[in-house]
Structure prediction request, 82 residues.
Amino acid sequence: MTATQTPITATAATTANDEAIADSSLGLKIFAEMLAGVLLYGGLGYLGDRYFHTSFLVIIGLLLGLGLSMYLVFRRFWAVKA
Prediction:
C-alpha cells in the first residue's frame, strides 16, 4: 500500500451483508428446530404404532412435535429481552 491509498474500512455494504447472513442463520436455526421436533416425535409415534399395532400414534407424534417445536422456537428466538 502506498502513502496515497486509503486503508480499507468497513462500509455500509459489509454491514448489510453481515445482517443478511445473520438473518439467514436465524432462519436456518428455526427451520432445524422445527424439523427436529417433527422428526423426533413423529419417529416416536411411528415406533409406538409398530409396537402397539395402532395407526394413530404417528399423527399424534407429528402434531405434538410440531406444537412443542413451535413453542421452543417462540420461547428461544422471540423472547422479550429486558
